């Protein structure tokens, strides 16, 4: 069953959650939700192509997608940054000290959200329009 619509809709919702968290100072959750939005957006494209994408590395997923579509270096660089938020944004033992909410700051969360928005827009452009 082809589920690209489900993936891209959830990616859009994850972006909304990232914005909501950012506005309220939950920067670690903004970072993680941005990573999730980008991951699900790329997986939506794989679904549309009839494939299944495994893993959580946005950079790895985009590199796989680059075998079919041109993916620019800026997107890959942003994906690499997003990958670094996958675990440390949630788990204190992934950081040398401090809880994630103490370590993530607004500028970083804003930057990760921009990367996720760019990846989402790129992937949305490869998919049929949403109703």
From TrEMBL:
SMART domains: HEPN. SUPFAM superfamilies: Nucleotidyltransferase substrate binding subunit/domain (SSF81593). InterPro entries: HEPN_dom (IPR007842). Residues 8-119 form the HEPN domain. Pfam families: HEPN. This is HEPN domain-containing protein.
């Amino acid at each position: 069953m082809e589920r690209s619509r489900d993936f891209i809709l959830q990616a859009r919702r994850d972006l909304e959650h990232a914005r909501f968290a950012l506005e309220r100072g939950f920067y670690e959750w903004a970072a993680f939700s941005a990573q999730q939005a980008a991951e699900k957006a790329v997986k939506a494209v794989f679904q549309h192509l009839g494939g299944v994408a495994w893993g959580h590395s946005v950079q790895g997923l985009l590199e796989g997608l680059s075998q079919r579509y041109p993916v620019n270096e800026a997107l890959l660089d942003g994906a690499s940054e997003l990958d670094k938020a996958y675990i440390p944004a949630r788990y204190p033992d992934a950081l040398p000290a401090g809880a994630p909410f103490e370590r993530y700051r607004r500028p970083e969360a804003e930057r990760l959200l921009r990367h996720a928005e760019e990846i989402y827009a790129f992937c949305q452009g490869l998919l049929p329009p949403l109703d």
